[in-house]
């Protein structure tokens, strides 16, 4: 069940941390690691800290941008400190696991830079934000330690589900099975691009003064976790608006 | 509540691990560290990895035997791999936290050597054994990562107790407080009426053959449970579309 979970590290500075992350992942049964522009990789320091999880490092994919790392994922969770400008669905690691593990969605969990985490723009690519409830005033965990906590909660949830399945309860979360595949990251981004373009054309969005309009739109639609048909319907609406304006 | 918890490390080889443990402790609100015959301490490597948790290292007590570290404790928990010669009360980290945090007893949680953990004799000094449920075949966590998981569970339990004492959960479920009231039923219905009217005007919705378009739109937006501002923004968009078409 955890094969669908990808750990994404953005702009990691210290290769030792990448090794520590690989070890933490392997201990908890995760194996899909994606590195967005790491400062130094591959690295002997990473190999040493991985302490036997070399297969994870060897199979890690290195990409140049977060969007590429997320492209085939249907659910993205960003790790975050508490304060952010606009409220976004925020969960603790346990709640995160209860969302991620039972779902069939390809999921990315995104960790930011050692010194300053993820940017607001990066966080807005994510459906949920997860916060490890550290103490105020000393809140920044080492990145490998943060991955360890997240991976631990995923494994605890998986073990719980396995135990439940043996005992029978397998509660459906919708009235019927959701029969349509969820939209992936790339489809959602095309939708948001199309929406932004249309809002500019109808002069609702002023590109000189965009305010929080697109973040609000993203937040609203991502909360709903749209499926592929829903995204197509919305894009059909946008196309119809643009056609009317030109025609 | 966590002041009564002491972290005890037995014969740690790598000073970097001691630093990592100090950081993990401080992140989660623990501050009592006791080192049983560490190989190298104090150490600059430990200080560097502690990344700001120097106070924990400075106040750490170094002793020569585990018994001395446990002397003033009323409860001792030893971290352990699964197989042991004689059965002993074995808990997972969550169960451990639910035992330790509510109790008034001075408690030590004991972590063994990097390469081979605690001896059977050391484990038998402990009331409970705690096991982090890692995967078979790659079960040894880095010691700082193990302390992070244990300390995280202690903190989660403490936050749960605090919330219960306040008489309800006040954990924030959003990155900041959701400051805007949710839309009520009537506002949502006006939004859907406005949307339907607009979709007809742009000739996306055929009133003679509406198919499942409006139910899909409803389902999508209601899943997101929009607030009043979000509903107003959406209605602003619809108004802008209609104005463009007429103007």
Automatic annotation (TrEMBL), chains A, B:
Transmembrane segments annotated in the record for this chain: none
Keyword Methyltransferase annotated: yes
Enzyme class: transferase
GO biological process, one term: tRNA nucleoside ribose methylation
Keyword Cytoplasm part of the UniProt annotation: yes
Subcellular location: Cytoplasm
Enzyme Commission number(s) of this protein: 2.1.1.200
Domain tRNA/rRNA methyltransferase SpoU type: 5-152
A single MF term (Gene Ontology): tRNA (cytidine(32)/uridine(32)-2'-O)-methyltransferase activity
Keywords for the protein's UniProt record, in alphabetical order: Cytoplasm, Methyltransferase, S-adenosyl-L-methionine, Transferase, tRNA processing
Pfam families membership: SpoU_methylase
Gene3D superfamilies: 1.10.8.590, 3.40.1280.10
Reactions that this protein is recorded to catalyse: cytidine(32) in tRNA + S-adenosyl-L-methionine = 2'-O-methylcytidine(32) in tRNA + S-adenosyl-L-homocysteine + H(+); uridine(32) in tRNA + S-adenosyl-L-methionine = 2'-O-methyluridine(32) in tRNA + S-adenosyl-L-homocysteine + H(+)
UniProt cross-references to CDD domains, sorted A to Z: SpoU-like_TrmJ
One GO CC annotation: cytosol
Function in brief: Catalyzes the formation of 2'O-methylated cytidine (Cm32) or 2'O-methylated uridine (Um32) at position 32 in tRNA.
Similarity remark: Belongs to the class IV-like SAM-binding methyltransferase superfamily. RNA methyltransferase TrmH family.
Quaternary structure (record): Homodimer.
Protein name stated in the entry: tRNA (cytidine/uridine-2'-O-)-methyltransferase TrmJ
Taxonomic source organism: Pontibacterium sinense
